[in-house]
Design brief:
Elements (H helix, E strand, L loop, with lengths): L1 E5 L11 H9 L4 E5 L14 E4 L4 H12 L2 H9 L3 E5 L9 E3 L5 E3 L7 E4 L5 E9 L2 E9 L1 E4 L8 E5 L9 E2 L1 E3 L2 E4 L5 H4 L1 H10 L10 H17 L6
Length: 236
Amino acid sequence: MKIEVLFPEVCNLYGDLANIRYLKKSFKDLEIIETKLTDEPYFLKHKPTLIYMGTMTEHNQELVIEKLSKYKKRIKELIDQNVYFLITGNAFEIFGKEIICEDKRVIKCLDIYDTTAKRDMMHRFNSLYVGKFEDINIVGFKSQFTHSYTKKKLNPLFETVRSCGLNPDTMDEGIRINNFMATYVIGPLLILNPLFTKWLAKELGIKDTTLAYEEAALDSYNYRYNEYMQKKNIYY
């Protein structure tokens, strides 16, 4: 079972690689393939079990878009073939249509789904986050200079309970296309949400989904959920 981590040297802005370290700590048989910006992606000629990419700076977004644009057709093939993707933070925007900067410069993205991100570097949006994934409560954080907008109805990954979704006008957070899952929510997501992590492990074909430090992880998760639900102000 192979997990390909895309561009770990630049896509770890909020400690996102801890998601992968936690999976490896929990499931010893996983093979982690780290693809750097200068490498040919493993997914180009193979089919990983999961492809993961995390948050990056705005400058590095453009480098990643330039890199992945060459493999757009292959990425679409893998999504159609139900390969699992987990995309967190502003990596979400790379698979959308475009990013519009404050100076009206437009950065063309991969156009896998029809979203437009609007960037405002003078105003960072920070909040705690509570949402729902099927029957699982999701907790995490948001910290971003952008919101994403769409004129089409997309299939959200999470339904927001507290905070906002892709933008302040919607409670739909993230997107799910087949097994492609992308969200602005960070945390790291998998460490903060052991029930979601166990669901993902089962989906990936792992029989024993017992997590490392599972009891402590569940205690922390339940405490955090209750705290976030009771907190009067979740915005920072």
